[in-house]
Design a protein that fits this description.
Blueprint lengths: L2 H70 L5 H22 L9 H15 L1 H9 L5 H17 L11 H32 L4 H23 L3 H11 L2 H15 L11 H67 L24 H30 L4 H27 L12 E2 H10 L7 E3 L5 E3 L4 H17 L7 E8 L2 E7 L7 H12 L11 H13 L2 E6 L5 E8 L3 E3 L68
Length: 644
């Protein structure tokens, strides 16, 4: 084996290793992201969620007592002092979070910023208290100052608390909504408690009370609708039971009279008992619902952690083992290379025709390539599963791009197996619609969005020829795309022929001179046994693939100045479902790829279908010199590879 051959082998193995490491890295990132989301949410609940809950409850109590103190022009009493001390303790916990460096919260920067804003608002609370103690704030100003701080506290619960979209995320949103509804009830309590001190409900207070009651009832109903089944049942028992009966009765009394008589029949102890009971029952419902949701989510969280460990840990082990195996193989091959003056090793008389010198090494490479093909099949199956999961548009686009890159690697692997004289493992036994074969070929081309496919293909291709024809067409399509301007399109269509059908691949490139065209056609008719001429590797591969499946390829100038490649598929390979454009009904639905025979081996994409790609808007229309079929771009959905 020459040094150039060894260098080529090293390059190919390095490329395969890079692809394998990239796929594992992306899979590890996606799986690890879910685990990090769960870890972050759990850490947020422990370090920030509980202190914020205690802070909101403390601020609600302090707000009511402050409003009563300011309204009655009374000195600060012991209950208000105790409420302020409870608020200060919760503030200290939140300040510790904002200034801490918990490694589990490295990705919670937005939450930390909102917690810092809450701490700054709480620092200004001392000024509000001083003005209250000095009698320089009226009740409305004092209540508004506390309302603003509580609103900032609720904003701490951002989207980061929902982790990825799941049942736990939905439950979390419903619990937060129920806590906000409780805050509306607490504001109603503050307003009525202050009014009971004066014994009169002013017109503006009455309007505010009306808005608060209607808002908190609506908010409670909306929040309860999002609770899990057990939470909804508990809520219905709560609002229909005695805990809310007294509150609803007192609210009705408030709305019957005018400003001077609205409070008639309502005493401070009666209101205090009804409001405290309802507020306490709502807080209990919030707490128990949050706890039960976390318990239900525990098995799912364990599954996420286990999956992450399998992808990151076991996947890394597999990658390392494969890389070490490749390195060991290359090292064995490079030991004692043949010197230039040594005679070539003769082919044993019993070797089959076409076997190259060093057949044992060729067999080793073929086995390695088949193993890589199996790995690519597993990678495509993993990618297909990832694409089924709900993700953001950006992640879905990256997954789709990675899937396309892997499909192109699979094409190279299968082409290498074919050129080595073997048969790739991916094959079909039943006929496949020729339109799907053309789409599969386009999917293996880098600039697939520049390729237009005619809509009517009333033929099916014999299953054993599908893999070779897919790669044959992809070689011709890629050659056409490469040798034409980036703002042009390549058109693919089928034509009826007396001896079968022809697939045309037409580009708008500069075309070929007569001598170059003759040389290319000679290569396609009679590929040399010792490999491709320089610069014609793609046409050489097309000639070998055509010879394997019994097709014939030729090139000719097109009327628009480019080149037309004609692939003649004999009648033994294709079955016609009709004649001419009128057979359009035979063309399959582009969103439903062909199914695989149950006896076929599993295909690398996991479902036996030929791969498809999303197309972008572009010009349409074939030149008039080659077919009467109208040409349109077929929009292929990203999920077309999946079974419904």
């Amino acid at each position: 084996m020459t040094r150039d051959e060894m260098r080529l082998i090293r390059v190919r193995l390095v490329v395969l290793a890079a692809v394998l490491v990239s796929l594992w890295s992306y899979a590890a990132y996606v799986a690890g992201q879910d685990a990090m989301d769960l870890l972050r949410v759990r850490a947020l609940a422990d370090t920030l969620g509980q202190p914020v809950d205690r802070l909101i409850l403390g601020l609600q109590t302090e707000r009511r007592l402050t409003a009563e103190t300011v309204t009655g022009a009374a000195p600060v009493a012991a209950p208000l002092v105790g409420a302020r001390e409870g608020t200060d303790r919760a503030t200290a916990e939140i300040r510790e979070f904002a200034e801490g460096h918990d490694l589990r919260l490295l990705s919670a920067g937005d939450v930390r910023d909102r917690a810092g804003e809450l701490v700054r608002r709480l620092d200004g609370l001392s000024t509000v208290r001083s003005r209250v103690d000095a009698g320089r704030l009226d009740p409305a100003q004092a209540v508004d100052a506390y309302d603003q701080v509580i609103d900032v506290a609720f904003r701490v619960y951002g989207p980061e608390w929902g982790a990825y979209e799941s049942a736990l995320a939905a439950d979390t949103r419903a619990v937060i909504a129920l806590a906000r509804a409780r805050e509306l009830l607490a504001r109603e309590d503050t307003l009525v408690s202050a009014a009971l001190i004066t014994g009169r409900l002013e017109a503006d207070q009455r309007r505010g009370l009306t808005d608060l009651v209607s808002s908190q009832r609506y908010a409670r109903g909306e929040a309860a609708a999002g609770l899990p089944a057990d939470g909804q049942g508990e809520y219905q028992r709560l609002v229909g039971g005695p805990d809310f009966a007294n509150l609803l009765a007192l609210e009705d009394l408030l709305f019957r009279g005018d400003g001077g008589t609205a409070l008639t029949g309502i005493t401070v102890p009666a209101w205090r008992a009804a409001a405290d009971t309802a507020l306490g029952a709502l807080q209990t419902l919030v707490t128990t619902t949050a706890r039960s949701s976390a318990e239900r989510a525990a098995p799912g969280a364990a599954a996420v952690v286990a999956r992450t460990g399998a992808v990151v840990g076991l996947g890394l082990i597999v990658v390392v083992v494969l890389l070490l195996g490749w390195v060991s193989t290359v090292r064995r091959l490079t030991v004692g290379p043949a010197r230039p003056d040594e005679a070539p090793v003769p082919v044993p008389p019993s070797a089959p025709a076409g076997t190259a010198p060093g057949g044992g090494v060729d067999d080793l490479f073929l086995r390695l390539t088949r193993r890589n093909q199996a790995l690519l099949r597993d990678q495509l199956s993993l990618l297909d599963g990832m694409q089924r999961r709900e993700r953001s548009a950006e992640e879905t686009s990256e997954l789709f791009h990675l899937d396309h890159l892997t499909t192109r690697v699979r094409r190279n692997v299968e082409k290498l197996i074919t050129l080595a004289g073997a048969t790739p493992a991916r094959r079909w036994r039943r006929p496949v619609p020729l339109l799907d074969v053309a789409r599969g070929a386009v999917a293996e081309v880098p600039e697939y969005h520049r390729v237009l496919i005619a809509p009517h293909w009333p033929w099916s291709l014999a299953g054993p020829a599908v893999t070779d024809v897919v790669h044959l067409l992809s070689e011709l399509i890629e050659n056409a795309v490469t040798h034409s301007a980036a703002d042009t399109t390549v058109r693919v269509a089928g034509e009826h022929r007396p001896q079968g059908c022809a697939v045309l691949v037409i580009d708008d490139g500069p075309g070929l001179e007569a001598s170059a065209l003759a040389e290319a056609n000679h290569l396609l008719d009679d590929p040399p046994p010792d490999g491709p001429p320089p610069g014609l590797a793609g046409l050489y591969a097309a000639a070998v693939l055509a010879d394997r499946c019994g097709a014939h390829v030729s090139l000719r100038p097109s009327r628009r100045g480019g080149t037309a490649a004609i692939v003649l598929l004999p009648a033994g390979l294709v079955t016609s479902h009709g004649n001419g454009p009128g057979a359009a009904a035979a063309a399959p639905d582009p969103t439903h790829p062909p199914t695989r025979d149950a006896a076929d081996p599993p295909a690398p994409n996991g479902d036996g279908a030929l791969p498809t790609r999303v197309r972008h808007a572009g010009p349409s229309g074939f030149e008039n010199d080659r077919t009467s079929l109208d040409t349109v771009e077929i929009p292929i959905a990203r999920t077309a590879r999946r079974h419904p």
